[in-house]
Specification:
This is SPOR domain-containing protein. The chain is of the alpha+beta class and 60 residues long. It has one domain. A 3-stranded antiparallel beta sheet has the order 2-1-3. The longest helix has 20 residues.
C-alpha cells in the first residue's frame, strides 16, 4: 500500500491510493491527517492569495 492519501470531493472522505479517479479528489498528501485537512488547507491558501492580490492591486 502507498504512503500517500487523497481527499475525495465526491464522497468528502479520505482515501488511499486505491480510490476514486484523480479528477474527483485532491492530493496526494503524505499523511491521512493532511488529506483530512485538504479543504481547510485549500481555503487558507486561497485566502492568502486573495490578500496578495488585493495588496498587489492596492486594494488593502
Amino acid at each position: 500500500m502507498s504512503d500517500q492519501w487523497w481527499f475525495c470531493l465526491k464522497h468528502m472522505a479520505v482515501e488511499p491510493e486505491e480510490g476514486c479517479p484523480n479528477k474527483d479528489r485532491m492530493g496526494p498528501y503524505e499523511t491521512r491527517e493532511a488529506a483530512a485537512g485538504a479543504l481547510r488547507t485549500a481555503a487558507e491558501r486561497n485566502e492568502a492569495w486573495a490578500q496578495k492580490d488585493r495588496a498587489w492591486n492596492g486594494d488593502d
